[in-house]
Design a protein that fits this description.
By secondary structure, the protein is of the alpha+beta class. Among the domains are: about 160 residues, Neurolysin, domain 3 (Orthogonal Bundle); about 60 residues, no CATH class; about 200 residues, Neurolysin, domain 3. About 55% of the residues lie in helices and about 5% in strands. The strands form four sheets. A five-stranded mixed sheet has the order 5-6-7-11-8. It has a two-stranded antiparallel sheet with strand order 1-2. Strand 6 and strand 7 form a beta hairpin. Helix 5 runs antiparallel to helix 8, helix 14 packs antiparallel against helix 23 and helix 17 packs across helix 21. The longest helix has about 30 residues. The two termini are about 50 Å apart.
Length: about 700
């Protein structure tokens, strides 16, 4: 995003259209006139966003005041619907700003986030802690049995009532004031955690002087490291930041053990180095305040409060799932360690493997067992071709097509591609942005977000504008790992969920955290099916389709390494839960020591850290997946069982099953709870056996 010179923009004042009609000086206040209603990204300055947020807040406050001051009897139409449909400008501004601030953060965007975070926290509390407003909501809710409402309207009513209760509407005045303080402090701490982590990920470097130190690293990764060094004022050297596409190849391929150790420690110690971006104390404060909030709301711990509206319902149910997976995963990881030790012996060496040896020697063991070379496979996984494979699967399952939009629309990022998503009946379903490459200011990892969600306006469906933001291996060609390809398919599964969602009310659009990963994770299952590989896996130089011999090796080796992968994931899920079931938080709590002590007691191999350690665990400390990181595993029970529904027919693109999945899982939003939607699709509840078999743990 390019924020233009703000003084110049301010001096321009009000511009005139060619027809003589006045156009608002702030483009956020006008209708977006580009094709598909895409935002004029390059025209919007940071001051426009600030002004838009403040005006949006004013407008929503006025809407709330109108409900409060109305002398009419509260009804669904004049109270619930207004709450659901209101705040149009605020949603528009925040929807436009959000993906930009996470995908292209600048000092200006970070400053605006810090400025507005307490304002939004107070605004939210002003709504949900207002006794008069809640009384009107409650009056409609208490009368719900006498109302003629659609299933979606019943859900919206329930959700809005619950939102008020969860927001503290039933608390005393004194408790409400305490809740306001807790919410404000939490919002600022979570924001600071995220900003610290982005800096630690993008600005922590391991620098190498000589190319000889990179022996074993694929040439594309060496060239990327050279470019990073040059961009950071170190021409002739090689630099690696803590984005996985940069540092993971070092851990997997580099013969230099000392370098692997440096990269490993730098990655896992993000936020834990005692510098100004250290997140240990911030994490302790977050956990402490969350517990205070939970107790204020009448719960024993934060996990109880977070889980009450999810499929799992209780911490006990979460631990039950994780424990069922933990034991066989640790057993499998120990088998892999035996293979790693054997590989070390083959080299004539005699040392106990450490964490920075795991990926390197596991790769060697995999090659020895299956004669599979991931670096060779990557030559067939060029990112533009991978996207064609992703689109092919979506077309085969759901009949949708993708038309790239080039110079017709404003661009928020030159390397991002924009597509019109066309439904099988020829109507425009959505706009999709593929934004796959890392850049300065971009958050770590991969995610799916939207500039605009699906809605209805005057009875007409408003199409969503969906973004898949990733940090994939860049370069010419941009060759991807197997893990990267799975991630691309995963995030596109989230995008499909957003494309197909079709609800009348904003309050019915969301799904339970346990359920939300089902659409993404099931989409991964098609990534390496032979039929799909034949579409996209083409050698970047020759154009040759991946040989069947390599396809068979991918299939045979797919479950190898699942011990490591499962343990590191479940370890993070357990660490998240362990912190949030605490009923007391010691004043001197060190979150890193706590995490390690708990995992050691469970018998975690010393060579494996959790996928994210607490000081860089944005899923839980940032607030999105708090006491909820387990949900990927919960959803995997669903996705493995759901993919079996396709396999049972003998056709992984079976149209009847695909139509049911679209109808009962992808389209309804959150009209029903997750288990109801799943059983509507599958005809029964899911079974865990499919997950264990899928991971090679049974």
């Amino acid at each position: 995003m390019k924020f233009k010179n703000q003084l110049l923009v301010a001096a321009m004042g009000v511009a005139l259209c060619g027809c003589g009609e006045q156009k608002p000086s702030n483009p956020l206040f006008a209708d977006f006139t580009a094709p598909f209603g895409i935002a004029p990204f390059e025209e919007i300055t940071i001051d426009h966003f600030r002004e838009g947020m403040l005006k949006g807040l004013e407008e929503q406050k006025a809407e709330i005041e109108a409900i409060i001051n109305s002398t009419e009897e509260p009804t669904f139409e004049n109270t619930i619907k207004v709450l659901d449909q209101g705040g149009v400008l605020l949603r528009k501004v925040r929807g436009t700003f959000g993906p930009l601030s996470s995908g292209s953060a600048t000092d200006e965007t970070r400053a605006l986030q810090k400025e507005m975070s307490p304002v939004f926290s107070a605004h939210n509390d002003d709504i949900y802690l207002n006794p008069t407003l809640f009384a009107k909501v409650k009056a409609v809710y208490d009368n719900k049995e006498n109302l003629t409402l659609t299933a979606e309207e019943k859900t919206v009513l329930q959700n809005i009532y619950d939102r008020f209760v969860d927001g503290g509407a039933l608390l005393s005045d004194e408790q409400k004031e305490e809740l306001r303080k807790l919410n404000l402090e939490l919002s600022m701490l979570q924001l600071q955690f995220g900003q610290n982590l982005t800096h630690e990920t993008n600005k922590t470097f391991v620098t190498v002087d000589k190319v000889e130190e990179l022996d074993g690293l694929p040439q594309a990764n060496i060239e990327a490291a050279a470019k990073m060094a040059e961009a950071n004022g170190q021409p002739g050297k090689y630099m690696f930041n803590m984005q996985r596409p940069s540092c993971n190849p070092v851990l997997q391929y580099c013969h230099n053990r000392e370098l692997r150790e440096k990269v490993y420690n730098a990655y896992y110690n993000r936020g834990n180095t005692g510098n100004e971006y250290d997140n240990k104390e911030i994490s302790r404060k977050i956990v402490t305040l969350r517990l205070q909030k939970a107790k204020l709301m009448g719960f024993n711990n934060y996990a109880e409060m977070a889980l009450k509206d999810r499929m799992a319902k209780t911490p006990e149910a979460v631990y039950n799932l994780l424990d069922q997976v933990w034991e066989p995963a640790v057993k499998k990881a120990k088998e892999e360690l035996a293979d790693i030790r054997a590989e070390i012996k083959k080299e004539g060496k005699n040392f106990e493997p450490a964490g920075w040896d795991y990926m390197y020697y596991l790769d060697k063991a995999k090659k020895a067992k299956f004669a599979v070379d991931e670096a060779e496979i990557s030559k067939y996984l060029e990112i533009n071709n991978v996207y064609q494979g992703i689109f092919h699967v979506a077309n085969k399952l759901y009949g949708i097509t993708f038309k790239e939009i080039t110079d017709q629309v404003p661009s928020f990022e030159p390397t991002a591609k924009c597509y019109e998503v066309i439904d099988k009946d020829g109507t425009t379903l959505a706009v999709f942005y593929a934004d796959p490459f890392p850049r300065d200011g971009k958050g770590a990892g991969a995610w799916c977000t939207s500039f605009r969600g699906q809605s209805y306006e005057n009875g007409v469906r408003v199409i969503p504008h969906v973004v898949n933001a990733c940090n994939m291996t860049a370069g010419e060609p941009a060759l991807q790992t197997i893990d990267n390809v799975e991630t691309l398919f995963h995030e596109f599964g989230h995008a499909l969920h957003s494309f197909f969602r079709d609800v009348q009310y904003n309050g019915a659009g969301g799904t339970e955290r346990d359920f939300v990963e089902l659409p993404s994770q099931i989409n991964e299952h098609w990534a390496f099916e032979p039929e799909v590989l034949n579409v996209y896996a083409k050698h970047h130089e020759t154009g040759e389709i991946i040989p069947m011999e390599l396809v068979k090796k991918i299939e045979e080796s797919a479950k190898y390494g699942q011990g490591f992968a499962t343990v590191e994931y479940v370890a993070a899920s357990l660490a998240d839960m362990d912190l949030h079931v605490l009923t007391e938080v010691p004043a001197d709590l060190n979150v890193m020591d706590f995490e390690q002590e708990k995992l050691n007691a469970r018998g975690i191999p010393s060579q494996i850290f959790p996928r994210y350690r607490m000081t860089n665990f944005s899923h839980t400390m940032g607030g999105g997946y708090t006491a909820g990181y387990y949900s990927y595993m919960w959803a995997e029970v669903l996705d493995a069982d759901a993919f079996d529904a396709f396999k049972e027919t003998g056709d992984i693109f079976n149209q009847e099953v695909a139509d049911k999945f679209r109808k009962y899982v992808l389209t309804p939003g959150g009209i029903d709870n997750g288990m109801v939607m799943y059983t509507n699709f599958r005809g029964r509840e899911p079974q865990i056996d499919a997950l264990l078999k899928n991971r090679g743990l049974k």
